[in-house]
Amino acid sequence: MDNLPRIVEVLLEGLPETVIAAVGGIALTIVLSFVAGLALLSRSRVVRGVTRVYVEAFRGTSEVVQLFWLYFVLPILVGIQLVPLFAGVLVLGLNHGAYGAEIVRGAVQSVPRAQYEGAIALNLSPAQRMRRVILPQAVVEMLPPLNNLFIQLLKSTAILSLITVPEVTRQGREVLVPNFGPDIVLIFAAMLVIYLVLAVLITVAMRLAERVAAAKVGRRPSEEARLGATLGAGAT
């Protein structure tokens, strides 16, 4: 335990990279999830086909191999060397965006048919129907699975250690273990706590978002969302 302050200090030095990778990956995941998810519902077979190829390609291949391709193989093919952190964010977003696309697609399809018919009766255009009627209700349904997806993305930031990004996992494995080998249990326990705290923060934020989204469409938030709002209020 004498080395605990130093262990925590070194791990926290990698926290900014972990947070940047997670936040950047989540932001890209959200964009790709909505774009690809709605594209899967397109009337155009070409759009659906191209999107399906993207979704299945990234869901069906290893995230580590995707990272190696983008960081090591891409420079050989096109002569462009990506910054390690940017390459990691790109892979995290592309990979989890493929999973998120199915979440968005399923949430939109879960909206009752009567809602579509009511929007048509109000003479709303397809874009207006989607923006004003369908998506607000679908968002409520997609937030819980997106919460799980974002936590999985957070945990996946550890693979960035393979391309020399000095995030939490690399700080522990490459810096602390060689110098504080006897404290290896303490090192990895501290790493677990850091990831757990970050996961809890994501969950609280998503529960608050679920509560707001449910209120906007006149629904009562789930018990988990109310608990998240309470925890968020307590934290402030």
Key features?
236 residues, mainly alpha, MetI-like fold, 10 helices
Number of domains: 1
Shape: flat
Written as H for each helix and E for each strand, in order along the chain, the element string is HHHHHHHHHH
Going by CATH, the architecture would be: Orthogonal Bundle
> Helix count, per DSSP?
10
What's the total count of β strands? 0
Contiguous runs where pLDDT drops below 50 for at least 5 residues: 224-236
The CATH homologous superfamily corresponds to MetI-like
Mean pLDDT over all positions: 89
Distance between the termini: 31 Å
CATH topology: MetI-like fold
- Oligomer designation: single chain
Level-1 CATH class name:
Mainly Alpha
**How much beta, percentage-wise?**
under 5%
Main beta sheet: none
In short:
This protein has 236 residues and is mostly helical. The protein is built from ten helices and no strands.
Describe the structure.
This protein has ten helices and no strands. The chain has helices at residues 4-13, 15-39, 45-59, 63-78, 84-110, 113-121, 126-156, 168-179, 184-216, 223-235. It has one domain (4-235): MetI-like fold (Orthogonal Bundle). It starts with a helix and ends with a helix. Helix 5 (84-110) packs across helix 7. The chain is mostly helical and 236 residues long. The model is unreliable at 224-236 (pLDDT under 50).
